[in-house]
Amino acid sequence: MKPNTPAKILVVDDHYIVRAGLRGLIDQQPDMKVEGEAQNGEEAIRIFKELNPDVTIMDLRIPVISGVDAIRAIYRDHPDARILVLSSFDGDEDIHSALEAGASGYVLKHSSGDQIIPAIRALMSGHRWIPPEIEKHLDARNQGETLTTREREIVGLLAQGEANKQIAGLIGITEETVKSHVKNILAKLKVRDRTEAVTVALRRGIVHLPEV
Amino acid sequence: MKPNTPAKILVVDDHYIVRAGLRGLIDQQPDMKVEGEAQNGEEAIRIFKELNPDVTIMDLRIPVISGVDAIRAIYRDHPDARILVLSSFDGDEDIHSALEAGASGYVLKHSSGDQIIPAIRALMSGHRWIPPEIEKHLDARNQGETLTTREREIVGLLAQGEANKQIAGLIGITEETVKSHVKNILAKLKVRDRTEAVTVALRRGIVHLPEV
DNA sequence: GGCCGAATCCCTCTTTCGGGGGATTATCAT
DNA sequence: ATGATAATCCCCCGAAAGAGGGATTCGGCC
What we know:
By secondary structure, chain A is α/β, with parallel strands linked by helices. Chain A is about 55% helix and about 10% strand.
């Protein structure tokens, strides 16, 4: 590391205040500097290309293109990208997807500055940064079984209040098959009915409410 | 106003980064200064008493005691408190409750600094600050009918996946009465079934998911 | 005193859910 | 090839949900 050329940081968050907070925090450090900001996933991808930052700090709940999808897109073109997810606790599924999509670290928004800065430095030097409490959650997640693609799709439709018959029509399968899937979903999520299935799926980040 | 004694600001948010951003932004202004920070509703109430700030900036989604309840508690003891809600868009119900509980202003977290500072100044000088887009939402809310206390309570239980019979047992009324309430809820929210009712209620801020 | 809204309870009837099975393909990794 | 998994479809059956009525009580408000 050269102390005379601070690491280039890209900050991605839709809240101005959060970006301002990060900028203030980071620019105080001698070895890093915020060189770019993006407010949504689309911007993030574009600005990453232009800037080629050393570390990208990314919120997951961002408009236009989700944080996870943005990470995936960036990682595809730049497999050496160092992306640090900075998020409130968004549910196991999001964390897991983010790491799978190519993120190298995860920090909670609740974290104080002296927890965030070391995370950035870790990524700068090529290391990963996953706090133990996050890893514990990922393990816990594996206890509960994972939903398949089809099942996740159906949970999304459940959340919209669709009946089995409607779902069948929408995705072109039989109502009987939908019932099978729903049965499996209830069993996997260990819930009593479709309504609880939806709230559990929302908490785990398996599905999201459409933006308000 | 005396330019030599800056207004005392209390910042309430559970995210360190947000507090840091606000502190940086505010302390740049000559006429205001962050004199206190709180991470949850309980702290907010306590620190408000000690500090008696000129303006309090409050997030709604905070632990222990919700922002709305904290505002209510503070307002009860200090009817002259100036509280500015700073929140991502949390649904009509939360905004409405916050204002009803005693907040004097509302600013979105997306807002940039030159939108937040004027809001603080407005409250400092005793004015209210409700952006037009927020007021529009409050009007829109009134188009759709309002749920009664009982109905909101039942929506909360629906979100937990309780069946009508369980709900009846839990709150000590007949299953028939629960069905009546559910029927009215579906009609008021203009949805097809209880599952959709829950997701709509979540989006509107009528109920919340238990914290992750 | 009369009115209205909230909350309660009741009945009928049809549809939908969810639990309990079982079965068949296709794919993919071993 | 063999096994595992995902995805599909099928049947039965009892319980729950929702649509459509109607009715009562209790307060507060005008």
